[in-house]
Write a structure and sequence with these properties.
Elements lengths: L2 E8 L5 H15 L5 E8 L6 E8 L2 H8 L2 H11 L7 E6 L2
Antiparallel strand pairs: 1-3, 1-4, 2-3
């Protein structure tokens, strides 16, 4: 069953260029991950420091595999260093 993963991030404004670069790098690697279907990155109109990444995966197992990937974790750690707080991940299933 396909799932959607929502990742919320709140950045430090001066870190936006670095964050954008890392998000593009992460998306490029996700495209090659088993089970990855699609993804999009949104920025809040009300608060431009808030980002929301929505990705779709074939299964929870595919997401978990990608989530625990060493290279992904290294990039995620770099991303988290640019944020006001750690990224918040939430997984949703189709009902």
């Amino acid at each position: 069953m396909a799932i959607r993963v929502l990742i919320e991030r709140k950045i430090v404004p001066e870190n936006q260029p670095s964050l954008n670069s890392l998000l593009m790098k992460l998306r490029g690697k996700a495209l090659l991950a088993k089970g990855y279907i699609s993804g999009e990155t949104l920025r809040s109109l009300d608060d431009p420091t808030e980002y929301l990444v929505i990705s779709t995966w074939n299964s929870l197992n595919d997401w978990k595999r990608w989530e625990s990937d060493k290279e992904r974790q290294e990039i995620q750690n770099q991303i988290d260093s640019l944020l006001r707080a750690p990224s918040l991940h939430r997984v949703f299933i189709y009902d």
